[in-house]
Amino acid sequence: MNSSNMTRYSMPAKQRTILLSGMALGLISLVITWFGDDAHHTRFWTNFLHNSVFFTGISFMAVFFYSVCNTAWAGWHIQFKRIWESMSMFLIVGAVLIGILTLTTVFDLNHLYHWADSHSVHEDKILEHKSSFLNNGWFIVSFLVILVWFYFAFKIRSNSIEEDERHDKEYKIHFKNRWWTATFLPIAGFTSCLVIWQWVMSLDAHWYSTMFAWYSLASLFVSMIALTILILIYLKSNGYYPNISLEHFHDLGKFMFAFSIFWTYLWFSQYMLIWYANVGEETIYFKTRQDDYPVLFYANLVINFLLPFFILMRNDTKRKYGTLIFVGLVVIFGHWLDFFLMIKPGALHTAHELAGHHGDAHGAADHGHDMVAHASEAGHHAAAHASTFEAGFTLPGFLEIFTAIGFLCGFLYFFYTVFSKSNLVAKNDPYLTESLHHHV
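RE: above sequence
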């Protein structure tokens, strides 16, 4: 194999077969989930939402961090920036996935969101009060946001490839791309909060947290860095990227280490402030998860904080492939579980609420008045719904794991397909020399 840093990637037949098989496994798992589910197909739609948001979020974080580095005049990442460019192209697939979710929500074909049930909104004072934001119109806007993200990602990658194809002595293309990345950052900062609030936080429609968006995005960022490390190690093991050194992995390892701590800081700050205030409308979120999902609640901290913290604390562990592979796999799985815990309890509670509402026309009204008059009692009321084990909700089952594998294989298949269409290294980037001689 030509080991030149200008080599294009070619997907081996064996890898293609493995990824296609994984995608088939995920699709079969979704079909089984649909036909083995309840009348509202709550387990199916939560699995679909969970993985669509998780992998779309990783794609978004790739173009976001690429834009951060480019705007900051950084050069350490230039050798492998095509990895982030190719990851960002998955946003178009994410748009299709979220588009399906949007259509089924608008036309009342899924029952994920309590606020989407018009009768519940009229009977529930809290939902009615939030209806100016929690409505189908804003949900459609959150879908359109992904198209905006993809447009920026496409322009950024197109400019990068154009710079690759012709040597621009005045660096006009480079500075044009810097304008695109700098413009994208404030747009990404504001709109990412909007979509996370709509897609995930609004599953617990009576609850809110001003820190939720930062917390969720930190989870996605760490997952993106971990996946970058794993892909880079795989490519190097197959003879690609000969000039990527342990210095680059050390920096990526530091980001994984630092943002695992940052994620924990946000987790603790959100939990501590809500616990200290002891407002029933806020504590309901954590009380449900701590009392009825204790395995996931505490495992979340162990997997996403304690393991990365103690393993990556030493400098040398950030330079060892074996350690980085182990922590990378743990981090991706751990933050996938984090989103599982964000999504499943709220969706399950909504399913019970709507089932009760369909059986008792006053169920939603009573719950809404109870939330206003006796907020703390509402926490116990909601928690009671999840007190028994429910497959695919209390803990991930085989169908959840296999569905996630299918989405991951789909993400990687799309990534490697796009990745193979351009040079591995941006040969005309003015900061390439800095990346080639990067030293920590």
